[in-house]
Amino acid sequence: MIPLRQEVQTVFQDVFGDDTIVIEDSMTAADIDGWDSLMHINLIVALEKRFKVRFATAEMSGLKDEDQNVGTLLQLLARKLDRS
């Protein structure tokens, strides 16, 4: 089984068209070139398709809050997949 972090990193690389992206828990949208509101939606949709999960609207918008980061996204996804 491929680790969740690696699978999510592949989604990030695909969505942002950058094979050099290496995700870290502390990363935010400011750390990835081109991560704006539209790309945030594209990322969430790609994650939903890849992992066959659904994010509620509040979860999607909450991930853009100032105190949220990639680590928060990974935790949320792990809970949805019951991989916590």
Can you put this structure into words, describing what you see?
With 84 residues, the protein is mainly α. The chain has a single domain (4-81), classed as ACP-like (Non-ribosomal Peptide Synthetase Peptidyl Carrier Protein, Chain A), CATH 1.10.1200.10. Helices cover 55% and strands 0% of the residues. It contains 4 helices and no strands. Helix 1 (4-16) packs across helix 2.
Describe the structure in brief.
With 84 residues, the protein is mostly helical. It has helices spanning 4-16, 37-51, 57-62, 70-81.
Can you give the mean pLDDT? Answer: 92
**What is the CATH topology descriptor?**
Non-ribosomal Peptide Synthetase Peptidyl Carrier Protein, Chain A
CATH architecture: Orthogonal Bundle
- Separation of the first and last Cα atoms: 15 Å
Give the overall silhouette: globular
Number of domains: 1
Unreliable segments of 5+ consecutive residues? none
Topology as a string of helices (H) and strands (E): HHHH
Q: What's the number of extended β-strand segments? A: 0
Features:
84 residues, mainly alpha, Non-ribosomal Peptide Synthetase Peptidyl Carrier Protein, Chain A, 4 helices, 55% helix, globular
Topology diagram in text:
Blueprint: H1 4-16, H2 37-51, H3 57-62, H4 70-81
Helix pairs in contact: 1-2
